[in-house]
Design a protein that fits this description.
Elements lengths: L13 E4 L17 H10 L1 E4 L5 H16 L9 E3 L6 E5 L6 H7 L2 H11 L3 E11 L7 E4 L1 H9 L6 E7 L11 E2 L6 E4 L9 H4 L10 H11 L11 E5 L4 E3 L8 E10 L34 H4 L1
Antiparallel strand pairs: 1-9, 2-10, 3-4, 4-5, 5-12, 6-11, 7-10, 7-12, 8-11
Length: 304
């Protein structure tokens, strides 16, 4: 099959046009998002949903985050990623498989239902993780398109996936909030450098392959600008799989914590990696899964 999104195979980086929709269906009354929200997501490649979870639900989610961070020995070893040169936790992967509450969140109609509607397909969780930036010590996540990695290292064929970042602590302009280049989802940045074996072992701490070059990054930023949506806990930032994003380190005393859920269309399930010898482990890129059956209602019963 011809690779329409080649990367890490050429001598020079390139900007390639997107060949897939962003929104896979037309808006109609009864949709889980307003028409204006759908149009904004299609235009910018991201959308902020405020107050998705009520205070009691949020308290339960924050409590679960604290439990996971406090006792990493109870988690599968390979799913816990420390900051380079430190014992501070950077990420915990497969959180929906290690927590009943987060499994319920992943299936929540307010999230999975929206993802399924936008992608016009049944969806499954391609990846889940908790990203934590402790005060003073939280390191940056450099600019990248998730799809470039998912395509090259996992074998995701097309741009029919999206992420939802659940804010579990206040994201301020100062503590390393998510930054996005609005409109960048319409351009695929092909990167240089052959993927090393078991690249994930270092890329989860600091990515060096699949990182866009500075010239093309500057071009996208000058063309579209940079947004850094902030918000209070309980909000959700929804963004397309190809939206260029990253975040600065956190040198404030205020921690930042976000739970990420990645939804992929069932019709877009993973194939052989397009630019790596072998796929990444299942805890990073699911190959065994079931379609999500979206669940309505409060998280209170699960939390109890």
């Amino acid at each position: 099959m011809k690779d329409i999104y080649p990367s890490r195979s050429g001598a020079e980086p390139a900007l390639l046009p997107r060949q897939d929709p962003t929104v896979y269906r037309s808006w109609e009354p009864g949709a889980p998002l307003a028409r204006e929200q759908v149009e904004r997501f299609e235009r910018d490649g991201y959308l902020v949903l405020e107050d998705v979870f009520d205070p009691a639900e949020l308290g339960a989610l924050q409590g679960e985050m604290g439990r996971l961070l406090a006792d990493p020995s109870s988690l599968a070893d390979e799913t816990v990623v420390a900051e380079r040169g430190s014992r501070e936790i950077r990420s915990i992967f497969a959180i929906h498989e290690q927590s009943a509450l987060l499994a319920r969140v992943a299936a929540d109609a307010r999230l999975a239902g929206v993802a399924s509607w936008l992608l016009d397909d049944e969806v499954y969780v391609h990846q889940s993780r908790l990203n934590y930036k402790p005060g003073f010590k939280g390191k940056e996540f450099f600019w990248h398109s998730d799809f470039e990695t998912w395509h090259t290292e996992d074998g995701m064929p097309r741009m029919r996936a999206l992420s939802m970042s659940i804010l579990l602590a206040e994201n301020t302009p100062n503590n390393g909030p998510l930054m996005l280049i609005p409109g960048s989802h319409q351009t695929y940045v092909s990167c240089v450098g052959e993927t090393p074996d078991d690249h994930y072992r270092m890329s989860l701490k600091k990515q060096e392959y699949g990182v866009p070059d500075e010239l093309n990054l500057a071009d996208l930023a000058h063309r579209h600008g940079i947004d850094a949506p902030t918000g209070k806990p309980g909000s959700v930032i929804l963004f397309d799989c190809n939206t260029m994003h990253g975040s600065n380190g956190n040198i404030t005393p205020f921690p930042r914590a976000n739970a990420f859920l990645v939804y992929n269309a069932m019709s877009n399930r993973l194939e052989k990696p397009f630019g790596a010898e072998k796929p990444r482990p299942d805890f990073i890129a699911a190959r065994e899964f079931r379609p999500i059956q979206a669940q309505a209602g409060s998280l209170h019963k699960v939390a109890a």
